[in-house]
Request: fold
Amino acid sequence: MYFTHKTNSYTSLLGTVLDAWFICSEEEMAKFMGLYFFMGVVNMPTIRHYWRRPRLHNYSLLQQVMSGRHFRATLKHFHAFNSLAIPQDNCGRLIRVCTMMEYLVQQFQDTYLPEEHLSLDEGSLEWKGHLSFHIYSTTP
Reply:
């Protein structure tokens, strides 16, 4: 897997070793990505809250898949691009995530094949963030 290779290369380039870190396998990276996507759906105040054991929010599945300490170590070392391959004259703001976006879009397209025509409009999506570039939407 691309992310496994880049994360392991980045960690060896840094030369840092944490007690919760070891060379990441493809299976561990798949678990990490699954947990990270889960965290995008289920919002908690901090990452540590997902591994707490209160009565109200007990996500024991997370604790069975990966320890919180190992997840945080993988998150710290996660790398999705080759910083040495970026041209010096590059001015694109999305250069660091382009490879990851292309990979994920391809994987999602290979996995999910909709059987009906689906559409979303701006009103159905909630956006509270700020973009540093402008998006112009022209209406026909």
About this structure: The chain has a mean pLDDT of 77. Residues 2-79 form one domain.
